[in-house]
Amino acid sequence: MKFRLGFLGAWALFVIGVILAAAVGGAEWQNWRDVERLRKLRTIDRMIAERLGSRMDVLKEAEEERGARVERLRNAVQEVDVKLDDSQDTRQAIVVSTAENRLSVRRGGKTIFQAVCSTGKGTTLTDSSGRTMVFETPTGKFRVVSKEENPRWVPPDWHFLEEARKKKKAVIRLNPGDAIDAATGEPVSATASGGVWGSVDSRSSSGRVLKIRNNSVVEVSPDGSVRELPPGEMIETRNAIVVPPMGAPQRRFDKVLGKYRLNIGSGYGIHGTLATDQLGRSVSHGCVRLGDADMERLFSMAQAGDQVLIY
Predict the structure, then answer these.
(1) Which of 104, 161, 183, 227 is the residue whose CA sits 20 to 30 A from 262?
(2) Does residue 78 have a pLDDT over 70?
């Protein structure tokens, strides 16, 4: 009996040892797999960094910029309760969240209207003079300065600059007294015969010239006939985008802003949009965009002097 117990005890110890050895081996195997997985990840990271090269730094900067913007929005959200305290009176307030791209109307401390909107995209654009424009919706307290039906959009210079860069073209500002070839965008000068306009480089000239007459852009043909260019259309030559002077009909665009606009000052406003598929996203150049139906309803309930809170 003692021999049998001793044998069974030894066998049990052997089995326990095998189990422990297997457990230790399994743990070592798992550790080895983890080490190999980490090594492979580091190798992949190194390969990605080598392939991207300088673009990796650009991506990191973009990520840091997004993080900074998110942090600014979080800080703004933390202050929203304080701002909303100003809307607890009997007058109504229009409240815009740039983080959520949501617009609401509060009256007497209650929300009576909500809509999805689009706000500033937060990008920058630098012109040839080094001036940098930031396309963000301004935050803070504003007022409805005026209400406008069938508004016309007078695009700032940055609109022409953006279009030119998209198409890899130059930008030419057409001022009174200037003249450019309608096909090439090259400057032209008057000839000595009867004031007919001719190109500096006749080989590339179309014979048609763009100039300003009565503060409007006209096209003068070689035979002297004059045609006024249609309003609200981009003027484009082979090599350039042409910027008409302020006040020219060609610098006024209809229907781009929808049927209604609430002006809040400094060139910013709340208006309709043709880009309804972009609602809910941060894509504008600073204004707040709404769908036509929502904008019509907001326009009907808004009054000049209403407070506008943007955060």
Answers:
(1) 161
(2) no
